[in-house]
Design brief:
This protein has about 300 residues and is an all-alpha fold. About 75% of the residues lie in helices and about 0% in strands. Helix 1 crosses helix 12.
């Protein structure tokens, strides 16, 4: 085994894992606030990336202005979702909210393509996707500058949100809402305002994820399926933990890359597509609540 090549594969997997963690973060935010898996998060990522690319291509706006306008658009979309969809479903069963997010996913996907069209768009960020020269020259390890920069952005965002939920008043209110909606309302916590803030944050996370994944893979409908890669990340890290999203992303990213390189030739290739889900299934059998999730104790 070539140590340099192993390090290259491992580093590439860890950097991809941070990107997966960013995808998972949007799901964690909504789940912490409502206890519901937000099926529409992938559609929000697609909508954000397509809107930003459309503002640049169709209107000739500079990238920084397009990002700012898209951020405002995502906040407006989040507030509209809270007002039109979530508020009428207040205190309804979780399955009702989950079905609502499925309907939202199809609506947002259709709205994005209705406004901006369905063609694949290119999104250029001011980060070159080239190897880091000194790392390649000194250690013969090929690591992309784009991957490192994207991982740094994701890590900063995850850290900021973790601190927000752990050390601020809104974080404590969010945890109370997640535990019991009705009890939180009884003690004066404004549930509707909390949902509006959380969905706005999820929209901002979707924008960052859409920009990074869109720059790497192109802005296309397939971005909605990339978001599903967050599911095994959530299973490993826990659906309610922001640090767990980071840990789960690193594990999934590293495991899928190493499995593709070293186990793929033994099973005919294509292992990268299904190995994370097999790992998540195994993890469900051993620790269903995830590494950082709260252990559920049922009394009967």
């Amino acid at each position: 085994m070539n140590p340099g090549f192993f390090c290259e594969v491992l580093i590439g997997g860890l950097l991809s894992g941070v990107m997966y963690a960013l995808m998972a973060l949007g799901f964690v935010l909504i789940y912490k606030a409502s206890g519901v898996f937000n099926f529409a998060q992938g559609a929000m990522v697609f909508f954000a990336a397509l809107s930003c690319a459309g503002l640049v291509d169709d209107f000739g706006l500079p990238l920084w202005l397009a990002i700012a306008l898209t951020m405002a658009l995502m906040v407006a979309l989040a507030l509209a979702i809270e007002r039109v969809v979530l508020r009428p479903l207040l205190n309804q069963p979780e399955i009702t909210l989950f079905m609502a997010t499925i309907g939202l996913a199809y609506f947002i996907e259709g709205l994005a393509q209705l406004i901006w069209g369905a063609q694949v768009r290119k999104l250029d960020l001011p980060i070159e996707d080239v190897p880091i020269a000194w790392l390649l020259a000194r250690y013969d390890i090929n690591v992309s500058q784009f991957d490192v920069a994207a991982a740094a952005v994701c890590a900063l965002l995850v850290t900021a949100l973790a601190l927000l939920f752990s050390h601020t008043r809104i974080g404590r209110a969010l945890r109370a809402v997640a535990d019991d909606h009705q009890a939180a309302q009884a003690v004066g916590i404004p549930l509707r305002r909390i949902w509006a803030v959380v969905w706005s944050l999820a929209g901002m996370v979707a924008l960052v994820a859409g920009l990074l994944w869109g720059a790497r893979n192109g802005v296309q409908f397939a971005l909605t399926f990339v978001a599903l890669k967050a599911l095994p990340v959530l299973i490993l890290g826990g659906f309610t933990s922001v640090p767990g999203a980071m840990a789960g992303g690193l594990i999934i990213g590293a495991a899928e890359k190493l499995a593709e390189v070293y186990l793929g030739p033994l099973v005919g290739g294509g292992i990268e597509g299904w190995f994370p889900y097999a790992l998540a299934l195994l993890f469900l059998l051993l620790r269903p609540e995830g590494l950082f999730g709260e252990k559920i104790i049922r009394r009967i």
